[in-house]
Fold this protein.
Amino acid sequence: MPLLAGTAVRDISPRKPMFLVGYPHVERISTGIHDPLLASALYLNNGSASVLLVALDILFLDPPTARELRRTIARKTHVPESGVFISCSHTHSGPVTLEMLSWQYDPVVQRVDPGYVDLLKTETLTAAVAAATNPRPAELAWTSATVDGVGCNRHDPDGPRDPEAPLLVVRDPATRKIQAISLTYSMHPTVLHEDSRLVSSDFPAYTRLALQEAFGRDCTVLYHTGPAGNQSPRYHVRGQTFEEAERLGRRLGDFAHTAIEQAMNDPFDTTPTLNSALAPVQAPTRSFPSVADAEAALVKARTTFDDLRTRNAGHGPVRTAECAWFGAEETVVLARAQADGSLKAWLKPYTTVDVQALRIGNRCMAGLPGEVFIEYSLALKRMTRYPTAVVSLVNGELQGYVVTEEAARAGGYEASNSMFAPVTGTLFVNYAADLIARM
């Protein structure tokens, strides 16, 4: 049977002023919506199998909520649970969607609004069901853009990064009009900072806009954030403004546009293989320093930040030191939770998480939970039998980062609030590679 595809988009923006989460110590209550947060869905069915991609413009979900949403969508759409692939863009200009232990020290960060989470789940389900309800004949192809100038490794501008932006293009076989684009790029969407009070998906909003200007406003663009735990625009921005978000977002969109145009005359597949798999992974936890040691490290981190700021060391190094100070604050909270015995209860919903893989035509998508460092994505790409788009924050986050052994030894912001041992990233890579090897 020829391929069928359906798309749908729903607005998941808050309907009232809400706290915008992503930066500590700042009371960011939204004053309006700059660009709507979206739930974008793409349904594919080849007659014998189906998959459903969902991209959400939110910071993240916890594993139980992600699992519940995945199962509900599977039940309502008759897509196998393993084929429902839900990612979060990680915007830092949207509402709180879960409770983080490391935020408990910060009285400014507000608690989750259950009403917003209900809205998010309802609209996401609506988008998924709508995409699966009336699919049309389609054909698909994969291509990739090579991107520069949007961001880099936020600890070392010359450090590991991934310039590839995999692109899944779905179009009408008769008119060749593009119905949907799924784009994956490994970069924190953090051009906008704590002084912004407007709801926004940050630079991905402009990437989406650039592609819709090129291929039609009815083209559904799913934006997935790849592993970007140590990637950000920090060394490429000229300021934390919407103008800068537009400049970087359109730059990424232009790279994607060029790659798609070059692929339009290549063969598109009307009978692609579709396959999916899901595997639970036991994530090993780590231990934290004593409260006294954590407090001493906090003093040191604050001193380093103040020194660099006083010397005008430059935006990148100063911001890195500031984040290290934030991480040291969070480590104190985690050390206290370890000391008083409450840490175990916080971690219970996170110790079993799901790694996911899809095969769509001649390429695959891997979904890894948590904020994963780029090194793990690069390792997985080297291991897989098919070219693979690696997506992070699929099936939930992990109360912090999934860092490398090297980063754990070096310390810094991400390592400070990582809840799980670095071997967790290796486990994710190995499980995902095994799923793909059997497709």
Observations:
- The mean pLDDT is 96.
